[in-house]
């Protein structure tokens, strides 16, 4: 077998080998690095890979650690964890439930709206699902809600942090797409390409996030009309109505101001995402202090949780760098390029196939695992086919949101199962998410058919 073909075969086997080891439960970062090293050694023995290429890894790692853009990741995580630990999110959820309780489906609508607000102010999916599961799920079940509808609403609304800025997924994708787009444009002879920034991706994701919120809310309204017994009203007692307006203002205004300060400064060009993230982190501390919820214990818990989540994400990124080097230098990128370029249907078919692959991988892999593996492989080919990088990034982000929702390994389902009452069967959670996965697919199709939903706001800004 000629060396070029052998290298492509080995790179393909390595990709499926990594997926297999991950399904067996091995740690992600060590699987990515370990399997890639093994296949690198096999490739070296057959003369299709030069191990001296690993010498570029230290420079890559230093580049990640010194990247100003990626500094925003731990800052946004800190902001989200602080809002969750100081129970600001809990107060917001309880207050909005009272506000909409008199309507059929009102509790469900309040969960969707609070999920959107928490996504825009925290972006931490696990904390959002757990918080809403602890507070809203018992209230919805007591009110007579269909368990499938209640769990579906909570899981789907909790994952809005994947697509609604300031999503940490969008930060990583923005950083990756920026470098890939520059490289692709230079290879095409464009030595002054229009830069792609994380702020552009945030702006592009804003309206698609609104589309998802409207789809979720529309489904709840549809259920309230066609099946009112599945989501009955929960009237607020008269004594609790007094002072409700003030309670709503107190719970709603501070998070709204924080959202405006963070996202407004990014979209308005006043601050970079990293600078806005620092404002958000300080703002979350101030909100906790104003609510008399700030203590050394909460601060310590927040810092530890932030360090843990950040370390987990970056060590996956480091392992993915080893995979990227071996895969590309053994000819895997040529294999992918030939496959996508020769599809009948051209660019449209190539994008659909990549989205379908990511959707299927979402059944078995986490979001960060998918973007660190798939984006470096497929994005250069798609951008070379003149796909808009901002549209691609947002489309991928909405698609990857399903990785938190789809059984059997949807993490949002596991988060909710961990805090749901023991008498609630797991099958109800799995069945309840099906309509919302369908809504996700409708949202993806909408962006596919009307890319202006993504590209309009970045162009205007």
UniProtKB/TrEMBL annotation:
<feature type="transmembrane region" description="Helical">
    <location>
        <begin position="61"/>
        <end position="83"/>
    </location>
</feature>
<feature type="transmembrane region" description="Helical">
    <location>
        <begin position="104"/>
        <end position="137"/>
    </location>
</feature>
<comment type="subunit">
    <text>The complex comprises the extracytoplasmic solute receptor protein and the two transmembrane proteins.</text>
</comment>
<dbReference type="Pfam" id="PF06808">
    <property type="entry name" value="DctM"/>
</dbReference>
<dbReference type="InterPro" id="IPR004681">
    <property type="entry name" value="TRAP_DctM"/>
</dbReference>
<protein>
    <recommendedName>
        <fullName>TRAP transporter large permease protein</fullName>
    </recommendedName>
</protein>
<feature type="domain" description="TRAP C4-dicarboxylate transport system permease DctM subunit">
    <location>
        <begin position="17"/>
        <end position="453"/>
    </location>
</feature>
<dbReference type="GO" id="GO:0005886">
    <property type="term" value="C:plasma membrane"/>
</dbReference>
<comment type="similarity">
    <text>Belongs to the TRAP transporter large permease family.</text>
</comment>
<keyword id="KW-0813">Transport</keyword>
<keyword id="KW-1003">Cell membrane</keyword>
<feature type="transmembrane region" description="Helical">
    <location>
        <begin position="276"/>
        <end position="292"/>
    </location>
</feature>
<keyword id="KW-0472">Membrane</keyword>
<feature type="transmembrane region" description="Helical">
    <location>
        <begin position="201"/>
        <end position="222"/>
    </location>
</feature>
<dbReference type="InterPro" id="IPR010656">
    <property type="entry name" value="DctM"/>
</dbReference>
<feature type="transmembrane region" description="Helical">
    <location>
        <begin position="391"/>
        <end position="416"/>
    </location>
</feature>
<dbReference type="GO" id="GO:0022857">
    <property type="term" value="F:transmembrane transporter activity"/>
</dbReference>
<feature type="transmembrane region" description="Helical">
    <location>
        <begin position="368"/>
        <end position="385"/>
    </location>
</feature>
<comment type="function">
    <text>Part of the tripartite ATP-independent periplasmic (TRAP) transport system.</text>
</comment>
<feature type="transmembrane region" description="Helical">
    <location>
        <begin position="248"/>
        <end position="270"/>
    </location>
</feature>
<keyword id="KW-0812">Transmembrane</keyword>
<feature type="transmembrane region" description="Helical">
    <location>
        <begin position="12"/>
        <end position="41"/>
    </location>
</feature>
<keyword id="KW-1133">Transmembrane helix</keyword>
<feature type="transmembrane region" description="Helical">
    <location>
        <begin position="304"/>
        <end position="327"/>
    </location>
</feature>
<feature type="transmembrane region" description="Helical">
    <location>
        <begin position="428"/>
        <end position="450"/>
    </location>
</feature>
<feature type="transmembrane region" description="Helical">
    <location>
        <begin position="339"/>
        <end position="361"/>
    </location>
</feature>
<keyword id="KW-0997">Cell inner membrane</keyword>
């Amino acid at each position: 077998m000629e060396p070029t073909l052998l290298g492509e075969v080995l790179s393909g086997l390595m990709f499926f080998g990594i997926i297999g080891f991950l399904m067996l439960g091995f740690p992600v970062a060590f699987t990515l690095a370990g399997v890639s090293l093994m296949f690198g050694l096999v490739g070296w023995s057959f003369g299709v890979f030069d191990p001296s290429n690993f010498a570029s890894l230290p420079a890559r790692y230093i580049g990640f650690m010194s990247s100003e853009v990626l500094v925003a990741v731990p800052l946004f995580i800190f902001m989200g964890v602080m809002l969750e630990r100081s129970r600001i999110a809990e107060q917001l959820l309880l207050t909005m439930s009272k506000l909409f309780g008199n309507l059929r489906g009102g509790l469900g609508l309040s969960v969707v709206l609070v999920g959107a607000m928490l996504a825009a102010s925290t972006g931490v999916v696990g904390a959002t699902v757990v918080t809403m599961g602890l507070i809203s799920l018992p209230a919805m079940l007591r009110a007579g809600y269909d368990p499938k509808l209640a769990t579906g609403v909570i899981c789907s609304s909790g994952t809005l942090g994947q697509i609604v800025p300031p999503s940490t997924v969008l930060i990583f994708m923005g950083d990756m797409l920026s470098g890939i787009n520059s490289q692709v444009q230079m290879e095409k002879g464009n030595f002054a390409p229009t830069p792609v920034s994380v702020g552009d991706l945030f702006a592009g994701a804003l309206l698609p996030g609104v589309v998802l919120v409207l789809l979720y809310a529309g489904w709840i309204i549809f259920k309230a009309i066609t099946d009112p017994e599945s989501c009955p009203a929960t009237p607020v007692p008269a004594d609790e109505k007094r002072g409700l307006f003030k309670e709503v203002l107190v719970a709603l205004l501070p998070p709204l101001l924080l959202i405006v300060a963070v996202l407004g400064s990014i979209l308005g060009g006043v601050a970079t995402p990293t600078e806005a993230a620092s404002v958000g982190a300080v703002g979350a501390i101030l909100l906790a202090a104003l609510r008399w919820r700030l203590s050394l214990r909460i601060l310590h818990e927040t810092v530890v949780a932030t360090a843990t989540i950040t370390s987990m994400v970056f060590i996956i990124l480091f392992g993915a760098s080893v995979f990227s080097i071996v895969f590309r230098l053994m000819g895997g990128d040529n294999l992918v390029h030939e496959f996508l370029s020769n599809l009948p249907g051209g660019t449209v078919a190539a994008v659909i196939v990549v989205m379908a692959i990511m959707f299927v991988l979402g059944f078995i892999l986490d979001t960060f695992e998918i973007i660190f593996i798939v984006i470096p492989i497929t994005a250069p080919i798609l951008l070379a086919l003149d796909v808009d990088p901002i549209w691609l990034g947002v489309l991928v982000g909405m698609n990857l949101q399903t990785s938190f929702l789809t059984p059997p390994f949807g993490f949002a389902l596991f988060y909710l199962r961990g805090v749901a009452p023991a008498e609630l069967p797991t099958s109800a959670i799995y069945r309840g998410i099906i309509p919302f996965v369908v809504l996700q697919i409708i949202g993806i199709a909408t962006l596919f058919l009307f890319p202006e939903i993504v590209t309009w706001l970045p162009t205007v800004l």
